[in-house]
Amino acid sequence: PARLTVSPDSSQMFEDSFMSLSCEEDGSAGWTLRRSTTEGHVSQCGDGWGRQIGSVCVNSMALERDSGVYWCEGVGGASSSISINLTVTGGSVILQSPVLPVMEGHDVTLSCQSKTPPSSLPADFYKDDVIIGSQPTGHMTLQHVSRSDEGLYRCEIRGHGGSPPSWLSVTDKPTTTAAPTPIIPSGSSPLSSSSSSLSSSSSS
């Protein structure tokens, strides 16, 4: 499947922000970036939104209506393995969190950003509408994440408002297969050789 990349790497952004998305796959082409907006409109890059430059779709001035699910689609309607949710807000606060799933065991930093300077202010962080901490600089790090850290996150900055919610996905670590134990033929085992040497020396 194609690999969908997003810049900036954040599931939320302010209106009028620049964003670019691309569908990449080694040695292959023909992937199209498509989206389904929160209003249910399905379209591809260049069809009323974005501008295709090579394999990159550029949206130089994102609007709230650009919020939705994005994915790569190949010839014949084959979809990429990952679709992503992007939220563009006209509000004054966003939560910067990874747009792609995070692997178990990795650290994740959440940043609560205000549109008006200073951007880094004391913030409260919530998971599934339950407060999980307050940070003086607006940054919270989740260490060694596991599947239990999956959920809907948002943040609030006093006097500025709150961010929209964003879902944080956590994927399992790839399973490592132990190397098979080599099988030594019985006739050539070290134990058999030493036993035969001992028996021959004792007989002489």
TrEMBL record:
Alphabetized UniProt keyword annotations: Disulfide bond, Signal
Q: Which GO terms describe its molecular function?
A: transmembrane signaling receptor activity
Specify where the region named Disordered lies, as residue ranges: 164-204
- What Gene Ontology terms describe where this protein resides (cellular component)? external side of plasma membrane
Which regions are flagged for Low complexity bias?
174-204
Q: Which PROSITE patterns match?
A: IG_LIKE
Keyword Transmembrane in annotation:
no
Single GO BP term: immune response
Q: Which residues form the signal peptide?
A: none
Q: Which residues form the Ig-like domain?
A: 1-89, 91-171
What Pfam families has UniProt attached to this entry?
Answer: Ig_2
- What is the superkingdom listed in this entry's lineage? Eukaryota
Q: Which InterPro entries match?
A: Ig-like_dom, Ig-like_dom_sf, Ig-like_fold, Ig_Fc_receptor, Ig_sub
According to UniProt, the name of this protein is Ig-like domain-containing protein
The record's gene field reads: OLA.9084
